[in-house]
Amino acid sequence: MQALRYWDYYGMTETFSDLYDKSLKQQPFSHLYDIITSRENILLAYRTIKSNKGSKTPGTDGNTINDMKKWSEAKLVMEIQRQLENYRPKKVRRKWVDKGNGKWRPLGIPCILDRIIQQSFKQVLEPIAEARFYKHSYGFRPLRSTHHAMARIQQLINLSHFHFMVDIDIKSFFDHINHTLLIKQLWNIGIQDRKVLACIEKMLKAEIDGEGTPSEGVPQGGLLSTLLANIVLNDLDQWVAGQWEFFPLTKSYQSKGGERQAKKRTNLKEGYLVRYADDFKILCKDAKTAQNWYHAVRLYLKDRLKLDISPEKSQVVNLRKRESEFLGFTIRANKKRNKRVARTGIKPDKKRKIKEEARKLIRRIRSSPSALNALRFNSFVLGIHHYFKRATKVNLEFSRLTYDLRAFMYNHLRPVGRYGRPANPPPTYKKMYHSSFKTFQIAGVYLFPLSDVKTVNTMGFSPKMTPFTKEGREKIHKKLRPDIQREVGELMKSTLLNRSVEYLDNRISRYSMKMGKCEITGMELPASDVHCHHYLPLNFGGSDQFNNLRIIHEDVHRLIHTKDKEMIDELKRRFQLTRGMIEKVNRFREKCKLESV
């Protein structure tokens, strides 16, 4: 995990672990400001923002991360510390994003310096909040994903036989968060530093360009927004869990079954919540209980959190008879022999969007049949396969999508490509796709077959897998591997001008073969950190052939080519290079006709 390396480099790992441990013990925190404004925390925030794609999106002042790269570390730290002494965030830029259903989502883009400030706050507040959050909340939390939420839903349907689902849709949740209530909620989870709370209040009140100062809501697009939203809804999580799952009994029971039977003898409503951001479900055993939950949650949201639900989108669904939708998937409890099992697919709206995007990319290939456009199509296919392959009927869904697109694809690509079964495809293609489906070859690149996808079992999330404890970090290092399929998709999106088809294809193949690891340090690389080095440089007679390429970390690449003594020392220290790693670097430098480090 990239973040853990940064934590270690800036010496913040123990600080975050200590905050998490104290928060688990319900301790309050009244001196957080000094940690937030410390040099190490600010530099860590800058490093994190720098590696974020959004860092190149300008705010109302027009600046991006590139404008700050010229600053010295001392200047950056001093400027942020100075700003926070009497904090006044700059105007937030409003951007509207098409939701695809005829509606638009408002995003609020802070200026780059305010984003670094928000990240500085988030880093310190997150371990405190994570220790208090409900275990089955999955949205925008470290290491958790939509697939973990789906795994929990399937577990409740398959093993516990919960076949009634309460669907609740909060009306414009992010736009209607109550500021006063949010500050109280921050205080209640232990964030009791008044200077910190005052700064957060100013972030919430930051003027939106062209719209004025908001009286409620948290702007989507701010780095702190998702954490604050989870803090708001954590009250709901804990309340729902407290009505059944965590309800305290006067007598202790040896088994979960005995405890459940004791609760059933009361008037408690049996139900389990699964939440991803503001999208959540409550699963129940019967229709009456589900109806009770529906009305109880509606009243709780209105009375306690000052939030309204959307009546037309909120309902109780009998999964034995109808489908529900969650995170782009459809869910139904189908009969299988003498029991019911979760049957999941792709929601109709998503299928329509997939077909629209596929047609757009196919038209682009037709008008410009380049390797880059072929790789863009492959990136799209990999992305939707990676996301939806957890659906139990994904093969049927994608077979149907392929059928619907077959004539369109054939008619558009036949004039510019060659159609047939791949003959000696590159390593990446063979690694991802094993079937002998016919496909098009465009500018030397085989298009990934849309229909070649199989179901992968969804795996539940282990709460012990947390970056905030020593045990959790050990589990991460031991078990967490980069998802090669997802990262290859990201690599394909990157636009590299003046590069040959051979280079683009071999770079991806090399990354895939090396399982996403840097060939010098052995660290796992997300696509954003990947650089591809020519072992024998092109200007010394090297080529773009597979055997002449090496996958390395972006900063290790700098170490191979730089002549700056200070940078060499800093990079050696940052990566804690062993003797063997330095020998590899020197072999690479020798090929570049540079001195050893």
From TrEMBL:
InterPro entries: DNA/RNA_pol_sf, Group_II_RT_mat, GrpII_Intron_Splice-Mob/Def, HNH_nuc, RT_dom. It comes from the Bacteria. Keywords: Nucleotidyltransferase, RNA-directed DNA polymerase, Transferase. Its EC number is 2.7.7.49. GO terms for molecular function: RNA-directed DNA polymerase activity. It is an enzyme of class 2 (transferase). Gene3D superfamilies: 1.10.30.50. Signal peptide: none annotated. It holds the Pfam family RVT_1. Residues 78-331 form the Reverse transcriptase domain. The keyword Nucleotidyltransferase applies. PANTHER family: NUCLEAR INTRON MATURASE 1, MITOCHONDRIAL-RELATED, PROTEIN YKFC. NCBIfam families: group_II_RT_mat. This is Group II intron reverse transcriptase/maturase. It comes from Lentibacillus cibarius. The lineage of its organism: Bacteria, Bacillati, Bacillota, Bacilli, Bacillales. The gene is ltrA.
